[in-house]
Structures are given as C-alpha cells and as structure tokens.
C-alpha cells in the first residue's frame, strides 16, 4: 500500500511538471486568468460566477430577464454551483473567486483523471511504474482536454474513468453492492456537473448489460435477478434526473427536437486518425476524412495498431480461441465500448432509419453524439496498454527479453509522442487574462458613480446587436462583443441581461427576446412582464446594427464609452408600438371571405388568407397553407411591378429542428429564371410563434415563392406596393397593418 501511495504521489508530481509550462500561471494566480475569454467558455464562467454571487436555489436570474432559467440548463456545473452556493451563503464568501474555483477544478480534474486511470491499470495487475506511465499517456491524449477552451464542464478528465473504475470494482463481486451504491450516487452527481456524462454512462451500461446477457446465454429472468444492481444503475439515475428536471422546470416549451443528432457524430476519421500533428495535412490529403469537432476522439496510434491486429486476428479461426481466452479481462468492456462507438457514429440511425428518433425523440436531446466516443477512447486505451505489456512479457519469454523491452519502449514512445503533440496543440495560447470577472467590483462600480447612476437605477442590461441562440429555430449572433461586455457588467452590478444563450431555452421567451428588435409597429410582449425603469444599453459604437436596432440606439442617452463599446440609458418607452399616422376609408376596398382590406391608395393588391385550406393551426382566420416538404406560396405572372413587397407568415414548428427555407424565383415568363434565398432564422418579426417573411419583388413578369422544409405551415400572403399602407381587419376583430399584427387599428 505504501509503495502504491508513493507511486500515486510520483504520478501527481510528474503530471504537475507536465502541466506547469502551460498551466503554471493558473496555479499561481487562479483568479487572474481564463481558459476561454469569449464564446461559450466566457458564458460558462459567467453563469457559474453570477449564480454564486447573486442567486440561490435552482433559479438562475443572470440571463433571460425577467424570467431567468433553471440552473440545470445554464452550463454552470449545476450541482457544483449549488453546493458552493451553500458555502458562500452560510460559511464564508467565495463568489468573488468563482473563476479560481473553476480553474482549479479543471486542473484538478486532469490530475485526478491520471490517478483514476492509474488505479484502473493497477486493477489489472500492471506494475506501478508502467501503470503510471500509461496513465499519463491516456490522460494527456484525452479528447476532453480539447474542451478546455469552451465546454468547461466537459473537460473533467476523471469523470468517465472514475465511472468505469467503480463499475469494474462493482463487477468484481467483492462487496459489489457497496460499489454499485457508490456508482449510483456518482452517476447522479456527475450528471449534475453535465448531463452528457450521465447519458454516456447510461448508454455504456446498457450496452454492457446487453453484451453480458448475450455471453451468459441464460434466461432473461435469471439474468435480471443476478444483475439487478447493474440494471438499476443503468436505468434509474437517468430517470431520476429526468423526473427532477420535469418537476422543477418552470418552462414547458423547451426544444424537444434540437438540431445536431444527424450532424455532430463521430466518424472513422475523427476516431482513428489524428487531427493535431504535423501529419494532419498529409492525412487530410490522403484520406479526406470527415472530422467534425464534436466527433474528435483520436484513440492514439498504439491503440489503433492493437485494434487492427485484433480485427485481423479474428479473421483466422485458429486465433479466435486464443483471443477468446486472452481477451477475458476486457472482452465485455471492449464489446460494450464498440457498441457505444457505433452509437456515437449515429449508427444505425443515419442509414435511412431516421424514423427511430421520431418514435423516440428523447434520443435527440443528446444531440452531440460524437461525445459518446469518449467512452470507447478510455476502454480501448486501457486495453491497449494492458496488452502491450502482455506482448512484452510473451516476447521476452519466447524470444528475447531485449526484444520485448524494445517493443515496450517503442510502444511507450509512440504513445508519448501522440499525447505530447495533442496536449501541446490544444493548450497553445491557453493563458488569457481575466478581463471580465475580477475579484473586486469597486473599480467597475466607480464608472457608474462618475456618470451619476447606480445599478438600482436600471432594471436590466440590454445588448445590441442582439444575441439569441440555441433554439435551433432562430439565430442572432452577429457580434458577441456587447454581449460579453454585458456579462462583465452583470457580474459586477447584479443586473440581469435580457438576452440569453443558455441550453434548450424556452421558445416563447426566446421569441419575445428577438421580437424586441422587430418592426416598431408590433407589440413587444416581453415588456408586459418588465417594470418602468430604464435599461442599461451596451452596444457597439461602429453602427453595425439593423434599422430596428439603430432606432433603439438613437433613443438612448449615452452615459460613457469603453473602447469599442458604448453604454447608455434606454427608456422602456422605446419599445412601445409606433403606428403611422395614416387614414383609411370607412368602407373596405376589398372583402375576401370574412376579411376586410383597406388601402391608402387605389392600387392592385393581392391577398390570400388560405381560408379554404385545411390546417390544424392558422396565424389568422381558420385556414392556412400546409405541405409535408415543399410548396409554392405564390406562383404566377404579374404585370410589371414597381417597388412591390410580398409578405407572409410561416409557423415555427417546435416539433422539428431547423426552419423552412424560402426561395424566390423571378424572371421572364418561360425564359431565364433568377433565384434568391431568404433565411427565415434571422428575421426578428415574430408573433404568436410565427415569423413574417418579406421579399422585395423584382420588376419581372414571372414570380414564384417557394418554401422548402418539413411539415410547413404558412398563412396571410400579401403583395402590395411598398408605399401603400394596407389595413387587414379580421372577423374576430384582430387587425394588421402591412401584414404586421397591431393593437388598435388606425
């Protein structure tokens, strides 16, 4: 035991020596540096720190004002944040050091990962020196180190190996129930750090139980009785997590079919080929592999050779018996790992079996399938390390000890080169100054005092250009600078931010956020839940705004400037609907069914409310156009047009990821056609779960407006001259002006 303790201490010391050149400043000044100073990484630092500093319980208020969000959906290391919040509230203050807490946890996760892998290797009776060397190789080649720049809570190298170690101990049958209890609790805890860990572990346990059942060749009832604790750990933790989420989540309209399941998967190239060394360009040219970032999980050259030899040996009948006996320690884990790898590669789903995810939509909640390949990485790595040592022993006893040692040294050397190249490539330029969440707010608050305001003068922070992502329906992310500055301001002042970029946000709240920069005639529904205090507006000075955003900036009062950013006071009156001063005749110029149309000029207007079309939903009236895949909203020849606009509404279907695409075809009738594509996901004119699409029509003869997507629903087509106002009065009393729904028709 003492010898093993000395080995662990030596392992930690060597790992620290390896880490020091790249991570030394983080260890010396843990609150002074960030692993990521922008994007998802900065947001993860923010939500963790803001929660510690200003929130408690399961509610996070720092984004999506005035609603906030559930702590589980904020990428804030939820269980860790909740426990540390108790310490901050009841023991001593730690909130000002939130950056240090995350940094030290991530570095500690690498060290703990090396120790856990060491114990796994020692479980299989490998000598301490060799287990230590291989633990370092597997640790520093881990694909989770690739996440240290952004997905902070996914960078804990210990997370998956510790799960496997507990499973190995539980299956050893020595006080197995105690180990299964530890495994059960650990899965719940680590799932509270990031739910993907729980998903990976549950899928692996399911694969392991299935492989074990097939090899046991016994009745299902007997298998269940003998492996009840294993099956309990397979099913119950993820069900408890889901139940807890449902019972405590205040929002019921989160995305149920997020994009990514059929895009962010692993590939043979991302698992078996390196993407980080000087050979990368050569490999790309030779193999042209498809490698997505989410799928990157290179297993290493030595494990790859081991796998190739294993597959080749299985093709020879004489080798199978030897392999069956020799693979006994890892057989079940390797086969389970292969099944999980196939799942990570979206097999069999992407081979015309997409209907399976329609039947089981919960599968799509883990949309980044490539992450599941991490389980295979650790299993194949440990197995390769084990059999490399066995190969050395076999060669030494049958041929030459010197040759055996050379083979072992060569394998260790190749592994070290892989791990070193990977580690250096993914920790380059990792040291970034903590510019946002300093451990004192006095300097920042002094800026407010100098311009005669305090945080309590404002109700929230608004950033422009607007930021709103993660619904997989609409995406506003043109520029993150003001949003990042907003996070800094929120952390220091306690003011929440209206915008949000949390995981799986509420559809209705995301849409009401985007609607704030919609057309000024439209009612901004979010304002009904806000008070009358002004907003602290943070925006760019260079004027990179849409017309609606520029209108808000122009109504704000500049307070101070900081580099490229401008801070101002924005009154809530800026969001009140503005209707044009126009007059209409008392009688409608046209009546279509029960809908009345009024014009400000005697011109030709084309309107279609699709009232004769069958539809489960409609934007206005009782009918709407529908199509399972593609449809022409309009297709006809028109007289020469001059400054006309075509507008219509498209339903934002929450049951499917993505949005339909609009194609506008125009040109000479029977002649050459031009085509224009309109991306609906960047249009801010949203109302009642529908988005208004507007097209500036060409002065051509032939026009066709095509919608392409999945289960499309559209409504309220209006083609009119831009300089003419059209009022639409519906049978139920609702009103629209130029196809925008308005309150109080002129």
Please give the radius of gyration in angstroms: 30 Å
Low-pLDDT windows of residues: none
Count of individual domains: 3
Helix-strand category: alpha+beta
Net shape: globular
Number of strands: 23
- Percentage of residues in strands: 5-15%
Main pleated sheet: 6 strands, antiparallel
Report the mean per-residue pLDDT as an integer.
90
Helicity, as a percent range: 40-55%
The rounded distance between the terminal residues' Cα atoms is 86 Å
State the helix count: 22
Search tags:
746 residues; alpha+beta; Jelly Rolls; 3 domains; six-stranded antiparallel β-sheet; five-stranded antiparallel β-sheet; 15% strand; globular
Q: SSE layout and pairings?
A:
Layout: H1 2-28, E1 33-34, H2 39-54, E2 59-60, E3 69-70, H3 78-90, H4 98-123, H5 128-140, H6 159-171, H7 176-193, H8 195-216, H9 220-226, H10 228-248, H11 268-272, H12 280-287, H13 301-314, H14 317-326, H15 331-344, H16 355-359, H17 373-398, H18 401-426, E4 432-433, H19 442-450, E5 460-464, H20 481-493, H21 507-514, E6 535-540, H22 547-554, E7 557-562, E8 565-570, E9 590-592, E10 595-599, E11 606-608, E12 625-627, E13 630-637, E14 644-651, E15 661-667, E16 673-679, E17 686-687, E18 690-696, E19 702-708, E20 712-721, E21 726-729, E22 735-737, E23 740-742
Parallel strand pairs: 5-6
Antiparallel strand pairs: 1-4, 2-3, 6-8, 7-8, 9-10, 10-21, 11-20, 12-20, 13-19, 14-18, 14-20, 15-16, 15-19, 17-18, 21-22, 22-23
Helix pairs in contact: 1-4, 1-5, 2-3, 2-20, 4-5, 4-6, 5-17, 5-18, 6-7, 7-8, 7-10, 8-10, 8-15, 13-17, 15-17, 17-18
């Amino acid at each position: 035991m003492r010898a093993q303790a000395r080995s662990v201490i030596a392992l930690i010391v060597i790992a620290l020596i390896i880490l020091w050149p790249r991570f030394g400043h983080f260890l010396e000044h843990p609150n002074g540096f960030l692993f990521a100073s922008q994007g998802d990484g900065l947001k993860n630092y923010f939500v963790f720190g803001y929660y510690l500093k200003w929130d408690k319980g399961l509610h996070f208020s720092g984004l999506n004002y005035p609603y906030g969000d559930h702590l589980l959906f904020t990428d804030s290391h939820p269980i860790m944040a909740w426990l540390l919040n108790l310490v901050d509230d009841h023991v001593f203050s730690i909130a000002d050091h939130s950056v240090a807490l995350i940094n030290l946890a991530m570095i500690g996760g690498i060290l703990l990962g090396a120790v856990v892998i060491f114990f796994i290797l020692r479980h299989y009776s490998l000598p301490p020196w060799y287990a230590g060397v291989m633990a370092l190789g597997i640790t520093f080649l881990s694909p989770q180190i690739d996440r240290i720049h952004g997905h902070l809570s996914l960078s804990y190298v210990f997370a998956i190996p510790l799960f496997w170690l507990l499973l190995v101990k539980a299956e050893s049958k020595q006080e197995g129930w105690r180990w299964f209890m530890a495994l059960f609790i650990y899965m719940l805890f680590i799932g509270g750090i990031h739910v993907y860990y729980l998903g990976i572990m549950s899928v692996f346990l399911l694969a392991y139980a299935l492989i074990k059942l097939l090899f046991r060749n016994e009745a299902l009832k007997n298998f269940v009785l003998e492996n009840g604790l294993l099956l309990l750990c397979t099913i119950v933790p993820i069900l408890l997590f889901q139940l807890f989420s449902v019972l405590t989540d205040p929002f019921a309209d989160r995305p149920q079919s997020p994009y990514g399941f059929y895009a962010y998967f692993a590939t043979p190239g991302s698992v078996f080929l390196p993407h980080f060394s000087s050979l990368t360009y050569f490999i790309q040219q030779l193999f042209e592999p498809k490698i997505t970032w989410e799928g990157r999980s290179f297993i290493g050259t030595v494990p790859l050779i081991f796998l190739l030899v294993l597959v080749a040996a299985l093709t020879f009948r004489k080798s199978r018996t030897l392999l069956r006996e020799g693979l006994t320690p890892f057989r079940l884990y390797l086969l389970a790992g292969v099944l999980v790898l196939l799942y990570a590669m979206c097999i069999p789903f992407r081979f015309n079996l997409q209907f399976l995810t329609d039947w089981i939509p919960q599968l799509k909640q883990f949309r980044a399938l490539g992450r599941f390949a991490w389980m295979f990485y650790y299993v194949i790595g440990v197995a390769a390390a084990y059999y490399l040592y066995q190969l050395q022993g076999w060669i030494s006893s049958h041929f030459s000890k010197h040759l055996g040692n050379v083979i072992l040294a060569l394998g260790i050397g190749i592994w070290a080169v892989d791990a070193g190249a990977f580690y250096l490539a993914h920790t380059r330029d990792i040291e970034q100054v903590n510019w946002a969440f300093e451990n004192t707010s006095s300097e920042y608050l002094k800026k407010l005092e100098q311009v005669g305001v305090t945080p309590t003068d404002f109700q929230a922070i608004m950033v422009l250009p607007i930021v709103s992502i993660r619904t997989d329906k609409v995406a506003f992310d043109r520029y993150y600078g003001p949003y990042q500055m907003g996070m800094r301001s929120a952390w220091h002042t306690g003011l929440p931010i209206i915008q949000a970029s949390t995981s799986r946000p509420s559809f209705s709240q995301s849409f009401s956020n985007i609607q704030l920069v919609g057309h000024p005639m439209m009612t901004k529904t979010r304002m009904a839940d806000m008070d009358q205090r002004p907003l602290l507006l943070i925006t760019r000075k260079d004027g990179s705004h849409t017309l609606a955003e520029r209108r808000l900036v122009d109504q704000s009062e500049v307070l101070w400037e900081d580099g490229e950013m401008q801070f101002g006071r924005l009154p809530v009156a800026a969001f009140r609907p503005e209707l044009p001063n126009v007059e209409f005749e008392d009688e409608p110029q046209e009546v279509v069914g029960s809908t009345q149309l009024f014009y400000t000029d005697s011109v030709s207007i084309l309107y279609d409310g699709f009232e004769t079309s069958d539809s489960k939903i409609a934007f206005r009236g009782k009918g709407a156009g529908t199509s399972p895949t593609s449809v022409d909203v309009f297709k006809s020849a028109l007289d020469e047009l001059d400054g006309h606009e075509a507008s219509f509404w498209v339903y934002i279907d929450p049951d499917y990821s993505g949005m339909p695409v609009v194609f506008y075809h125009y040109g000479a009738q029977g002649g050459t056609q031009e085509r224009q594509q309109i991306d609906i996901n960047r249009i801010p004119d949203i109302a009642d779960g529908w988005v208004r699409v507007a097209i500036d029509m060409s002065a051509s003869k032939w026009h066709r407006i095509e919608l392409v997507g999945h289960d499309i629903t559209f409504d309220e087509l209006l083609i009119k001259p831009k300089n003419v106002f059209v009022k639409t009065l519906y049978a139920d009393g609702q009103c629209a002006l130029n196809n925008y729904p308005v309150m109080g028709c002129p």
